[in-house]
Amino acid sequence: MKKLLMAFIWMLSITCIARSINIIPNPQVINYQEDKFLEIKNYRVENQVGEEISDLIEILPSEINSVAKLKRKKSGVLILFKKNLELDSIKGAYQLTISSKVVIEANSYRGFLYATRSLLQLLELSSATKRVPFVTIQDFPNYKQRILMLDVARKFIPLHELKDYIRTMAWFKMNELHLHLSDNSWGGYPAYRLPCEKYPELTSKDGHYSWDEIRELQDFAKVYGIVITPEIDSPGHSLPFTRVRPDLKSTLISENYLDILNPETIPFVQSILDEVIPHFDARDVHIGTDEYRIHRIKDAEMKLRIGEAFRDYINQMSDYVLSKGKNCRIWSGYEHMPGKTEVRKQTIIDMWETNDAQQKLDQGYRFINSSHYYTYIVPGAPYYGVDDKFVFETWSPLMFGPKEASILKQNTPQLLGGALHVWNDFGPTGYTTSEIARLSLPSLAVFSQKLWGSKCAYSFSEFRQQRDRLMNVPLCHLLDREKEQASVIVTRHRVKLESSKAKHLCKTKTDVTYPWTLELKVFPSDIPADQTAILSSRLSALYGSLKYEYKEKKKSTIKEGVALVRANQNYFHHPMDSHRPDVLVFDYKLKPQVWQHIKLIGEKKKTTLFVNGKKIGSYPIQTVCPIQWLGSDRQMGFTGVLKDLSVYNYIK
Q: Where does the pLDDT of residue 20 fall: very low under 50, low under 70, confident under 90, or very high at 90 and above?
């Protein structure tokens, strides 16, 4: 009530919502003086708040320099930080006033942080003129938890890139990074991204975070107002655990599931959490509990027994997490399980595949909008995907499904907020981390607007233009591929290849993500045998010849010709051996003892082959260009001569 009263007072005091103050998320209230500007060539900072915002004051100069190339000078424009006790009732509230000086007022660290993000965006937008408008912004979030979930289990994301996600989240005023730290992908790939003293073999060898790195990440995130919430998923998605404790795997359903009827399962999972929980500062610990599917069990009595055991599993784990001083979060879905045992009201529910929000509200649960209808991105998958236009124009955290019954009528304290989810189902060989960022970060900007909960005067087309101008996040490199200058990545004038001898093409990079162009002339010594690689890496291979059977339902088609293959899900000996690789066989067979000009173009969701200037074919599939090896270090290579080979980081 106090928050609503404060907001109402602010609304009365302000008369103009200015369309030309293009920051994201759009502020709650703006008073904009159209013809007055403050010219900022240099600046100085005065901190009247004290030590509590010293971390923020420390990072601000490098951020200002990054977006506007401004330096601190004693004679510069004053940026004044001071407390405003009237803002105490609204978490994250701030006031930013730009006139003859810049005054930032708040009564919490996050309030001051959000004010600086708004200032930095204004500086970014005026970097050419160094003139920012006279404006008073009074702002606060409507939703408590504004979350980005990253699946770092199936696709390991390095620490420095997680820091860039944190910078970007703060830029758009999000406040929680949910890390999905354990899972399995198709093809038998298990992943657990943390150390484990009791079961050292549990820790993924292809990438994990040390406890020192987890501490470093959280300290870094705290400066940016972000909390790191860990998730250890069980009893489904548990191949990492059943690999180290095969005695606990479900014999009724899948080795990917823990056997919840085994009395040793809960103590085992609790022993894992015993090591994890003390290392995280977040108030919440997520224990997963999604997709424990039992539909293959035909015995109704056994189904009921497992359903009750599953509900009891949630409650025992929730009690255990609570005993450690944390809130317990779970995924919804238990509602589909048979049984009458109620999940504890203390448990926070990430509602993804159920949309009975009103019922959860009436029952007294706290919950988060994680609706798979609207909030799921699965890079490279034909399913799911965020419709930015729909989310911007129609969706809100009140909307859990397409039917009217799935939409809450009004905001409530039990609705904690919402999340954008990035699920890396296709595992370690799925989209590269660059491709993931380029796909997901534009949607993050849209979700920041909707989760902040302010009114936005823009159309989606206007918002998209505004967003494109604000994707240059200070000190962040996730989108560097988008900003690269047109250049040649590698060249080779002439090289003779023998099938058994691979040669390094590039020692600093293995693949090029879209957009790219590959051009070369090839002179095969003979008709290329099946699976003879011209270029290769662990992730991808360009074959001089590949014979492949495409299967669709009951029909199958065999194609043979020049092919580009991208590995899928798990790494194997070479890309063709991976689990369901992307195989692009083009309708062209290389001719022996003849020079042929090959040109491949890789675009977003499209790959096209030209031979001797003629278009051979195109696939609506996003690929990468392998540049690690000429030939292959793992399988039979091309025999013949290559010349005038060039790979460009643009469409040529």
A: low
Q: For residue 95, what are the contacts with CB-CB under 8 A and spacing of at least 6?
A: 84, 87, 103, 104, 105, 106, 115, 136, 137, 138, 139
Q: Where are the alpha helices (DSSP H) in 37-108?
A: 54-68
**What is the DSSP-derived secondary structure letter of residue 616?**
E
> Token pair for residue 422?
């990035």
Tokens of 365: 């649960």
- State the Cα–Cα distance between residues 94 and 116, nearest whole angstrom: 10
3-state secondary structure 375-409: CEECCCCCCCCCCHHHHHHCCCCCECCCCHHHECC
Angle at 628 between CA 627 and CA 632, to 5 degrees: 105
What pLDDT shows up at residue 16?
Answer: 43
Distance CA 625, CA 518 (A): 8
Pairing of strands 516-524, 596-603: antiparallel
Q: What b-and-e string marks burial along 565-586, b requiring 16 or more CB atoms within 10 Å of the CB?
A: bbbbbbbbebbbebbebbbbbb
Q: Which residues of 593-618 are buried (b: 16+ CB within 10 A; e: fewer)?
A: eeeeebbbbbbeeebbbbbeeeebbe
Q: Is 511 within 8 Å of 537 (Cβ atoms)?
A: yes
pLDDT 10s digits, 481-537: 999 999 999 999 999 998 878 899 999 999 999 999 999 999 999 999 999 999 999
Q: What is the pLDDT of residue 552?
A: 83
> Exposed (0-12), middle (13-18) or buried (19+): which is 442, by Cβ within 10 Å?
middle
Helix (H, G, I), strand (E, B) or coil at 130: coil
Beta pairing class for 614-619 and 366-369: unpaired
Q: Tell me which amino acid residue 529 is.
A: A
Query: Backbone dihedral region of 130: left (phi > 0), alpha (psi from -120 to 50 degrees) or beta?
Result: left
Cα gap 434→480, rounded to integer Å: 8
Q: What DSSP string runs through 526-562?
A: SSPPTTEEEEE-SSEEEEEEEEEEEEETTEEEEEEEE
Indicate the Cα dihedral angle 395, 401, 404, 405, nearest 10°: -140
Ranges of H-type helices in 224-329: 239-244, 265-276, 300-323
The pairing of strands 102-106 and 327-331 is unpaired
What CA–CA distance (Å, rounded) separates 649 from 498?
Answer: 28
Neighbours of 207 (CB within 10 A): 16
Give the CA-trace dihedral at 252, 258, 261, 263, to 10 degrees.
140
What distance in Å separates the CA atoms of residue 280 and residue 625, rounded to the nearest whole number? 39
pLDDT tens digits along 47-89? 999 999 999 999 999 999 999 999 999 999 999 999 998 887 7
- Tokens standing for residue 402: 């397409």
Question: Three-class SS of residue 92?
Answer: coil
C-alpha gyration radius of the chain? 27
